[in-house]
């Protein structure tokens, strides 16, 4: 394997595909964060049948192969492939982010939440203004790890024709009729990006611990 060719392929993949990969990752992460926060609110604050229904929805999403969810949205709902990938990955991410948020929220700010209710705030206002800010701070390392997982999972958008980095690597391999070098190239790209996110998560976690906060990974 020629190292110069490998470097050229890495450059080609990053230049041509990184932007779309980042759009998929950021879009699905933010969608997952919004839905995950809402789900955690339903489970922690509302409870009852609504809380149980949201818990069933989370279990349902975590039990279905991600590629199947993308197929259902893309072929079933007939939406744009990039949008289908963002929605599908976002729904899956929401099922994981909701549990990250819920796990931390249940251990912090309970007394503050009760005090906010006692002075007249409604449950959503109390949750959004008291629990969420504290929870998000402590959840940063775990959420960054979820972001890294989404970065890798964005590659399944290849199955519905999204021209992100993995798709470009496969197309390059097919054009050359040589698969080892392009696939090693894309593996190194994902490795570099995910390690960068992981190191950032560990650094932030250590800083938060130094400041006296317990954090989730």
TrEMBL record:
Highest taxon in the source lineage: Archaea
Pfam families tied to this protein: BPD_transp_1 (PF00528)
BP term (GO), one: amino acid transport
Principal localisation: membrane
Location in or out of the cell: Cell membrane
GO molecular function, one term: transmembrane transporter activity
Gene3D superfamilies given in the database record: MetI-like (1.10.3720.10)
InterPro entries: AA_ABC_transptr_permease_3TM, ArtM/GltK/GlnP/TcyL/YhdX-like, MetI-like, MetI-like_sf
Domain ABC transmembrane type-1: 18-201
Protein topology in the membrane: Multi-pass membrane protein
Entry keywords, A to Z: Amino-acid transport, Cell membrane, Membrane, Transmembrane, Transmembrane helix, Transport
Gene Ontology cellular-component terms listed: ATP-binding cassette (ABC) transporter complex
PROSITE patterns named among the record's database cross-references: ABC_TM1
Entry similarity comment: Belongs to the binding-protein-dependent transport system permease family.
Protein name per its UniProtKB record: ABC transporter permease subunit
Organism of provenance: Ignisphaera aggregans
